[in-house]
Amino acid sequence: MKSFWALLSRDVRLAVREGGAIGTALGFFLVVVSLMPLGLGPDLNLLSRIAAGVLWIALLLAALLSLNRIFEADHEDGTLDVLATGPLPLELVTAAKSLAHWITTGIPLAIMAPVLGILLNLDLAAYPILVATTLAGTPAVSFLGAIGAALTMKTRRGGLLLALIVLPLYVPTLIFGISAVSAGAGPTGLAASFLILAAISLVAIVLGPLAAAAALKVQLQ
Amino acid sequence: MDLGPHAAFIWISYAAVTVTITGLILWLIADGRKQAADLEALERQGVKRRSAAPGVR
Amino acid sequence: MQTLTQRLANPARFMELSARLLPWISGAAGILLVSGLYLAFFASPADYQQGETVRIMYIHVPCAWLSMMVYGLIALSSFGLLVFRHPLADVSAKAAAPLGAAFTFLALLTGSLWGKPMWGTYWVWDARLTSVLILFFLYLGLMALRSALEDESAAAKLTAILALVGVTILPIIKFSVDWWNTLHQPSTDFTSTVDPSMRLPLLVMAVAFTLLFFAMHLKAMRNEILRRRVKALRTQAVAGRDRLAAQAANHGAAE
């Protein structure tokens, strides 16, 4: 367990010290959200109605762009081979790396989402719900994304392939993330969608490291 | 046969399914012939399968 | 005692058995298809609500059924590869993926052509159509991942992992799409009540399409086994030539 925390803090520190990756994801998030009103027109009523959907889709795309760095750098410099032969089971290695991705990408994006909500005239009452749902939903993004990152680690046109593989898996997170924020659901609908969103994240936390570790084992032999 | 006002939709559906499946079947047959021909050509060159010649790794 | 799958583990025995089975399955599929088409066009009435367009159902529903069954077959084969290391499992999964994608595409196309007279537009974000669309993306992902990897044995295992992840997530996707659909519009459910007079042609067509798929799948598996033999022979021939060349070079150096 100690080596799990060591790996986690190493990955988080590396990401924070480099800084570039987090900045890029946040910048991309900002640009995509800003393009939406330019494409759809500045009608504030329309924007506030679709704000939740726009924020979630932009968040998924921003997170998607950062997925390939979960394993890529460590695969290139051979760290992954060392980790695979180390004492920590590979499932925990992938779990630590996915968790580090969530801390360095999911949480910043979730904190950024309400700020961008201002640009889209999102209803003020929806802000706490938006932060809560993005925090509850983004673990699924990181842990399911780790599967795609592990599967495409050795492919050359990895980026597009990763999107094709991972985006369909994000459908449940997207649907329940948006339905929790949308006002139409009502308080009971809100609680239900929030709980289901959290359940999806839990499934992803179990499934992601297992599948990603299996994929790494195939490629590190 | 009168298929009513939407006959075109019915015909296009059936035509699309027929064309796609026929295309797949023709491709499968052509592919099978090609692989069989390649295999035969290699065997005529004297390349033996490993299972046919035990001991050769 | 050997089970059928164990006995089939030998590719040579599979080739022998499939060669014997293939004409029978294809023949049965052909006969059922012709009789199904006869029932669909001449021996079944038009729907009182949808009129003649209901005849699209007889190809749409079998395609939609196959789109799901084939994904199940791929998942089963993937399980067979990863857990039992069955030598034919990957051949089966690889051969089934493009066929499944084709039937999924046909289900979407015929669904959209059926929908135009029904709903007035070619595409409605109906729960069922949306689920099938996402299933189509899953097929595309499987095929794209396999084609992106050069090492065939790694490609087989990685694609199998993706197929098993897909089959785990698929029920959640289905559930969420259903939820999303009821949230936005009342479900337009008109296929649930199929008149008994339409049940027989539908059943015959569904069985005919299933047999047709299995015939195509067997043929694709046979092709894949032959392709692997050709590839193995070629690498063997190249290795043999290299060995001869190296021997000749050694000989020359010794003289």
From TrEMBL, chain B:
GO BP terms: cytochrome complex assembly; heme transport
Q: Which Pfam families does UniProt cross-reference here?
A: CcmD
Q: Which InterPro entries match?
A: Haem_export_protD_CcmD
GO cellular component, as recorded: plasma membrane
Q: Domain of life here? A: Bacteria
Does the record's keyword annotation contain Transmembrane helix?
yes
Alphabetized, the UniProt keywords read: Cell inner membrane, Cell membrane, Cytochrome c-type biogenesis, Membrane, Transmembrane, Transmembrane helix, Transport
Stated membrane topology is: Single-pass membrane protein
- Localized where? Cell inner membrane
The task this protein performs is described as: Required for the export of heme to the periplasm for the biogenesis of c-type cytochromes.
Instruction: Tell me its family.
Output: Belongs to the CcmD/CycX/HelD family.
TM ranges = 6-29
* Name this protein carries in UniProt: Heme exporter protein D
